Amino acid sequence: MFFKVKYTFKALRQTFSSFLTRYISRPARWGALGEGAHVHKPSIVSGRQHIYLGKNVNIDWNNVLYVTKGKFVMGDDSGAAVGLTVVTDNHVVEKGKLIHEGDNDNLQGGEVIVDESVWIAANVTLLSGVHIGRGAIIGAGTVLRSCKVPPYAIVIGNPGKVIGFRYTPDDIILHEQQLYPEEKRLCREVLEKNYQKYFRSRVKEIATFVKLQ
Questions:
Q1: How far is the C-alpha of 142 from the C-alpha of 155, rounded, in Å?
Q2: Are 133 and 154 in contact (CB under 8 A)?
Q3: Bridge pairing between strands 153-156 and 119-120
Q4: What pLDDT, on the 0 to 100 scale, is given for residue 1?
C-alpha cells in the first residue's frame, strides 16, 4: 500500500511539474536561435537553454526535443520533418538500484550535433553521441545512436546505416564551390576516403540491407 501511494504521488508531482512548465512557467531562453530559425508547434521542448539552432533552421511540428544536461546543435539551413525525437542524455544504471530510482538525477549528459544543410525526414530519432555531417540526408524512421554520419551521406534504418551519398566526391567539390568560401570547403582527400569506406567497399552489403528494409 505504501509503495502504491508513493508512486501515485510521484506521478501526480511529475504531471503538475509538466503542467507548470508548459502553461504557466516562463520558458527558458534558447541557447542560440539564428535568424529565420523555427520550431513548429505543437512540440515538446525540454532544456531549450542547451539547444543551439543556426539560421534558417526549420523543425516541423510534433517533435520531442529532450535536452536535460547535454546539448543539441543544428547548423545553418538544416531542417527536419514531423516527428523528430532528440534525446541527448542517458540514464546511468547502478547496481543495487531500480532503473527508475533517482528520476533524472542519474542522467549522464551527452550531445547531438547536426551540421549545416542536413535534411532529416519524418519520425527520425537521434540519441546521445550522434554527429551528422554537412549535407547528409536521414531517411524517414531512422534511428541513430552514438555514431558519426559522414558529410553528404544518405542514411536509413534502425540502426541507421549509410546506403550511399548524395553526390560523388567530384560533384561535392563543384557543389561546395558554389556555396562556401574556400577555407570552409571539404577537402578531396576526406571526400574520397568517406566514399570508399562507406560506399564503394560495401556495395553488396548495402544492397542486402536495403532489400531487408
A1: 8
A2: no
A3: unpaired
A4: 53
The arithmetic mean of pLDDT across residues 13-17, rounded, is 54
- Tens of pLDDT, residue by residue over 85-123, are 999 988 777 777 776 666 666 677 799 999 999 999 999
Mean pLDDT of 29-39: 95
Three-state secondary structure along 144-206?
ECCCEECCCEEEECCCCEEEEECCCHHHHHHHHHHHCCHHHCCCHHHHHHHHHHHCHHHHHHH
**Per-residue confidence at 23, pLDDT binned at 50, 70, 90?**
very low
pLDDT of 59 over the 80 cut:
yes
Cβ–Cβ under 8 Å, residues 152 and 166:
yes
Supply the Cα-derived Rg of the chain in whole angstroms: 20
DSSP letter for each residue of 16-71? HHHHIIIIISPPPPPSEE-TT-EEPSS-EEE-GGGEEE-TT-EE-SS-EEE-SSSE
Q: Which long-range contacts (CB under 8 A, 24 or more apart) does 46-50 make?
A: 46/21, 47/88, 50/88
Query: Is 13's pLDDT higher than 70?
Result: no
Distance CA 86, CA 125 (A): 6
Long-range contacts of 53-60 (CB under 8 A, 24+ apart): 54/78, 54/116, 59/84, 60/84
